Amino acid sequence: MKITQVESFLMSYQMPEPIRLRFWGGERTILKRDAMLIRITTDTGLKGYAPGPAHERADREIKQTIGPFLIGKDPRRWQKFHIQADREVMKTYKAVEIALLDLVARYEECTLSELLGGRKRDRIKLYGSAGMYMEPEEYAREANTIIDMGFPAYKMRAGMGPEQDLKTVALMREAVGPEAGLMIDAHTWWRMGDKNYSFETIVKLARDMKDYHPIWLEEPLPPDDHAAYRELRAQSDMKSAGCLPALACGEHEPDDSGFHDLITTKAVDYIQMDILCQGGISTAQRIFEGIQKQGLRFAFHSWGTSLEVLTAAQLGVCWPENVVEWLEYPCYSNEDHPVMYPFPLADEILSERLEIENGYLVLPDEPEMGIEINENVIEKYPFIPGPWSVFHLNSPAETIAVTGDHSLKWVNAALRRRDGVKGKTR
């Protein structure tokens, strides 16, 4: 059996109208949502699939470097493949490797989890992720909707100013009751320019939010400033500060050394990672081993399609829940549940809906991923070049574009110049 084709398909769902969301430091505009499907075909006609990093650089890397490297090889020997590439190409290769594994699982007629070490369980806990820049009362309504949908926890994105953020958390807790979980994603706080919250403001706000028992506070500081996270986490041991919520970070780490530092120094309580953008299954397994040794917890970052959620789940169930605890489930708006914004491609990429029971994703027993791919989405949602989201900062006045690469803070410089959009790079 030989590989004859390696294909990557970028797709886009354009919002009916640009969605403009005000936050304390400016405004964010959602233009579209992107997705990538990877397909590997062999001379026997057998195919393997995987979600991919939803941005143009990865698409070029697959077409120009990774595809030619894999053509002619026997996918069953995937563990012996050693591509010579830089760090970013290697991360994209690790996403393509998931399609190789899917292909082998189909050949062996086993689940993908069996190739990843074997299942320790048949389900993984989900949290409903939505909540983007609203008034406190709207966040509370959405929190109630997500919990009513059966999710044990709801994650929102704060950034409306310290007083409004605290009011939001208080109203959410009142709306969902004492048992439901709440996660606060503060990634906007370090993206506000001159409006960025000071360290002292973050300490006070985190201490006040603790009264409402959030499961974690995510990225309250720039993610590459690990020393600041260690200092913030240490505040829980200081009587003057009082106990703070658990901290979460990781989705912007560029390499293994960053994860290693987060884990070994216990800079945060929950480590996060996106397997499509940050090194695939092998990196995730190394992270899990470190987390287990340090007594920390892991939560998947999964901000795309149902195929991404399913792929992460196939790996997550190979570890016990006290190591890999949470899987992010993005909740997009539809006829049944008017939350966040629409992204129909997210569900349509699979031929059937995922099975969710009591807040857990139940994995199918069938071979490979367990659910077939709906290839009709490739033609239905043609790709639209350019960033999917744009931040307009008030002070200093600046416009920053964002692509689907969660290992980078902002869009790369080449894309900014092409689109005439100004911004920052790592």
Indicate the topology:
Layout: E1 3-23, E2 26-42, E3 47-52, H1 56-70, H2 87-108, H3 112-115, E4 123-132, H4 136-148, E5 153-157, H5 162-176, E6 181-185, H6 199-209, E7 216-218, H7 226-234, E8 247-249, H8 256-264, E9 270-273, H9 280-294, E10 297-300, H10 306-316, E11 324-330, H11 345-348, E12 355-357, E13 360-362, H12 377-380, E14 389-393, E15 398-402, H13 413-419
Helix pairs in contact: 1-2, 4-5, 5-6, 8-9
Q: How far is it from the N-terminal to the C-terminal residue, by CA? A: 42 Å
Q: Please state the overall shape, judged from the principal axes of the Cα atoms.
A: globular
In total, the number of strands is 15
Stretches with pLDDT under 50, minimum 5 residues: 410-426
CATH topology of the domain at 123-362: TIM Barrel
Write the element-wise H/E pattern from the N-terminal end onward.
Answer: EEEHHHEHEHEHEHEHEHEHEHEEHEEH
For the largest sheet, list the strands in their spatial order. 4-5-6-7-8-9-10-11
